[in-house]
Amino acid sequence: MTTRPNPPYRTSTTKSSGPSLQTTPTTLLSPSATLTGPHPISLGANVIIQIRARLYSTYGPLTLSENCIISERASVGFLSPPTSLPTSPPISTTTQPSGIDNNEPPSTTLAPGVLIESGAVTEAASIGAYTIIEAGARIGKGAKIGERCKICAGVVVGEGVVVGDGIVVSGEWVGGVQEGGEEDGVCRVKGEGGEGAGGMC
């Protein structure tokens, strides 16, 4: 009895009929992945796009730096027209006043080593190096996630939220007004040091 081979991965030598696609010889792109949109998509060295993953460049270019992994059924890129984007660097966990330069399409950039786990959906403007977005999490439009963060499974990060470096975000949701009357966009972050501290999910 013969073993059914795994489906091959496309590399930079494979022609694609979707968006303008830039890859490297070490990029691995599943044939069942979906690439949609008129703007360029750039996949760096050792990027892995797994089965049924979805990449969207409908509203602006999409860049995945080296060593990023997009797991099965995960989605990266804006799904609807963005209404606002953060203007400040990711120095805290809060929503920043913002606006869009209508002359420039909003870009989506994943820094090196980002892992997007199965079924997660991100419409973030940027995700910092070595950040993990766990299974089923959702990142709102225009959010900025810092380096070495962990967004725990099932968490929802609100539109325009900025998450600082090294923060672990857990809880049922992130963004909006929390109990106690805190301002919009303040994330619920829990860890060994209490609310606002880092820690394991």
UniProtKB/TrEMBL annotation:
Keyword Cytoplasm recorded: yes
Protein name per its UniProtKB record: Dynactin subunit 6
UniProt KW keywords: Cytoplasm, Cytoskeleton
Region of interest called Disordered, as start-end residue ranges on this chain: 1-36, 81-104
Subcellular location: Cytoplasm, Cytoskeleton
Compositionally biased region (Low complexity): 16-36
Leader sequence segment: none
Similarity comment: Belongs to the dynactin subunits 5/6 family. Dynactin subunit 6 subfamily.
Function: Part of the dynactin complex that activates the molecular motor dynein for ultra-processive transport along microtubules.
Taxonomy, superkingdom: Eukaryota
InterPro entries xref list: DCTN6, Trimer_LpxA-like_sf
